[in-house]
């Protein structure tokens, strides 16, 4: 058995990681205080909203500033890409929400949205809706197809509303968090503007909230000024886990959509990585850029962006190398927790492919592995294969993904 330590490039410090995630710094860009970061889903762009009133777009592959935009002379607390409209949407301390075309940087529209600072905007994944949350203790729903009508005002929080997020599994539901120490869940159908329910348990104000993006877990994660991160089951309304370790207010917390990890950020200057199943702390990242204000991740990618007092960092977590094995023409590989297979022998014998050409494979989904695969290897007879991850191994049948054996291991050699 081989034992591996995590390797980290740049000035980050890490503890030993059972998940064996290599962490590489892709971008480190100094700037004024970054209050919010976001990724473009297809371009290699990170969006940074600055306390100075500007918005920067960084190319994290070339480490260059691609575009910059002066929004106003007050802090921009939130900025998001809305790619189906080719917009950047901003929220700033002049109480306005603005839309800019990110190609031409022209202003598309502007709304005087609230009577106090706007903390966050959440863009609906498919409908023409934007949620804005504010220090005026309200959440407002805007419909850009109805000429930017403010169709709903959601009231019920007793302090600043710090963040809202849409539920990825039910597009009519969203959650919010507030300095009143509560998390509330709401619906936007009909004229209902009262919260469906509240989740209480934090001892101080709640700064950030996010839904688990995939899988069957009905979870919400939250971070608070009480320095803890909590995981909630929004079906039972119970807090199922509390993550302690940060030494100052927690400003960002989310589930990674591709990797089995939770990422958190704090005013203690660190971003922390936690195991998504065991909730153990896996790594502490400190890039010496003062307080962390925002973390963004990208579906289908292993990148993460972190916004600090003194700039923006983009890191890549884990290897880009595929986790795969081949035995006499049969390939088995992992995509996240999912195991897939294909048989090269089923290709038409008459077809000849040039070097580097893609083969038209018929891919079969085998199901989910019980552990997060970081290593796959066929048995010499081809009828079994081993999966290693999280310090454990499972041996499966190659035909039907039946569990034959399991135990502790890092890899088979």
Can you tell me about this structure?
This protein has about 425 residues and is mostly beta strands. The chain has no helices and 36 strands. The strands form 9 sheets. Strands 1-28-27-26 form a 4-stranded antiparallel beta sheet, with no helix packed on it. Strands 2-3-4-5 form a 4-stranded antiparallel beta sheet, with no helix packed on it. Strands 6-7-8-9 form a 4-stranded antiparallel beta sheet, with no helix packed on it. A hairpin with a 2-residue loop joins β34 (about 385-390) and β35 (about 390-395). Mean pLDDT is about 90; it is low at about 1-15.
Key descriptive features of the protein:
52% strand; four-stranded antiparallel sheet; globular; single chain; mainly beta; disordered N terminus; 413 residues
